[in-house]
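Revision sheet: structure tokens.
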Amino acid sequence: MYRRILVPLDGSTFAERALTPARELARRSGAALRLVSVVSGEEDRADREHYLGQVTRRLTDVHGIPAAKVGGVVVEGSLPEALVLRVADEAPDLVTMVTHGRGPVERLWMGGIADSMVREGGAPVLLIRNGDGRNEEFSVRDVLLPQDSSQVSRAILPHALRLGSLLQCRFTLLRVLPPQIPFDAGYFPEVVEAERPDEREERRALRALEDIFQPFRDEGLEVGAEVVAGVQPAEGILTYLESRPVDLVALSTRGYGGVRRILLGSVTERLVRAYDGPFLVVRG
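Predicted:
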């Protein structure tokens, strides 16, 4: 279960969208809610403290969260560094926050604050995309868990299981098998047409997914597996989501930064920019 959930707020209604899942998970688990706001100078502190007080009263008076379970703190510094440090100090079980994820300006939010929280914060991050969090309910029934053959992709499993046990979710584990370059392609594989993985490879991938069913079944949760072959990972996941929308996508990211991240690419970032639903992300 969750003991402490941290919600970064900047005074905007946009950032408050993250309060909806935070308060629902807190209500179900008995977790404490920690509201954190970063200001650049002392002159902003009083206004932001007043704002956090208003949010705290709304959570207690309107939404019934016990006063002893809600607290707020204003810290001085620059984003995202001050927020990452605060997460390290607070050691929450979960961070809930918003991200735009679209377009050149909005991408800065993912590339800056939310991205840094995933890569450096040390806690799983629930990224909220759409809707007004002060009025909507947070309901998650179907969860997609993209997996590959690496241990990195497995890092999300205990966090997804924790959330799923609380909300009684159904899980689908998804493996995307990219096209394969023939062994006899020579030194210029880019000019050779890639081949779809054969059925034996698809069956092996499916069995590998089924091997990690047991922790979900031990919690009495529904779990299944799907394999998509012949496309790149992000494309395969998005194509799957187009035909079978889910309430949440949960996945791990390698969390690289700078040039290394650019060279490796980021399936996670592409998904967050392209898909409107919420994401649960953890660094593997």
